[in-house]
Amino acid sequence: MMFKKTVVSVSVAGVLLAMTGGAAASGFALIEQSGSGLGNAFAGGAASAEDASTIFYNPAGMSRLNGKQLVVAAHAILPSAKFTGTGLAGTDMGGDAGGLALVPNGYFAMEVNPQLRIGLGVGVPFGLQTEYTSTWVGRAHAIKSKLETINLNPSVAYRVNDGFSLGAGINYQRVRGELTSNPAATSISSLTGSDSAWGYNLGALVNAGQKTRIGLAYRSDISYNLSGQVNFTAPLAALSGPVTLAVKMPASFSASVFHQLDDKWDVMADATWTGWGVFKELRVIRLTPLPALPVTPENWKDTWRLSAGANHHYNEQWTARMGVAYDQTPVSDAFRTARIPDASRTWLSVGGQYKASKASVIDFGYAHLFVNNAVINSTVTAPALVGTYSSSVDIFSVQYAYGW
User: Fold this and answer.
1) For the whole model, what pTM was predicted?
2) Residue 149 belongs to a domain with what CATH number?
3) How far apart are CA 356 and CA 360, in angstroms?
4) For 297-324, what is each residue's pLDDT tens digit?
């Protein structure tokens, strides 16, 4: 039956689209690559260059770091995604599909000479996990969705002169996914898949006077050819088999500014474009002689993220941070699915920094994301899923930096 074939296509898509409101940035990206940046809602990320986490946001920022520095950070991300709609009174609506996820980052940067810096970043640029109850009304669309990535980012920065620095990095990224669903009352489907690929990032940092920095940063798209295995229990076991899926993660470009107003106050802002428009469809290819699977339209659109923030330095040890941001969703109402009922969100962030010594710095932050309600009318499989998602996200971050 055609709806059974469609279920397989949607299942493979779920390996990559495991976000159901859980990603902190729009789409299925994770912007949480720095504990020091969360308190400012990551405003000024390409220009702040306070510590070695600049390797991710703008490798040229390493030119501001002296000696050696090690940074480790952890982020606790707690998304909430609740569906209401299809079904009679008392129907299982899936509960809260969000769940706690811990996202780590690590960075090391060192000064080679007055002009040259090198560094290595390790992070999780895409990911999170969501899970509905196994008997919910949309179980044919999704039950469990999980996406894990790891990104290795060796980088270099070169100070051309006192006013201008350039940076570049190579990205080796590994992705792994898992999905379960209940496409028929007597059959459970499960899918796993993985791949690795290469990309790059570039950056420039301009000192526009002693108190102002401008940062520009670009991260390339990354193309995957995900290999996976879809398995069905009886009576759909004949649909089991290996599949592949070609997909491209989007490129992004950021322009940031950081300005020191006086000894007490800093202000910063950022505009980031993400090329989600490359994600037009999901075309799953079978590696066995079974009927071809239908193409799943996605038709995502490019997005902008706008943010602004400020620091207040109480004294040499303590700094307070604050920030706001608006994050567009790439998903339109017409193409929203249970796999990723994403919606635009507004960030409110606060945080702080404590300098325990000249060598040791501790950063901490909290953000609450107000996610717009998301209408869904998904007919990718039967029965149709019609209703509304109400979502939110809470994020807690802590970071330790040690320099020598």
Assistant:
1) 0.90
2) 2.40.160.60
3) 5
4) 789 999 999 999 999 999 999 999 999 9
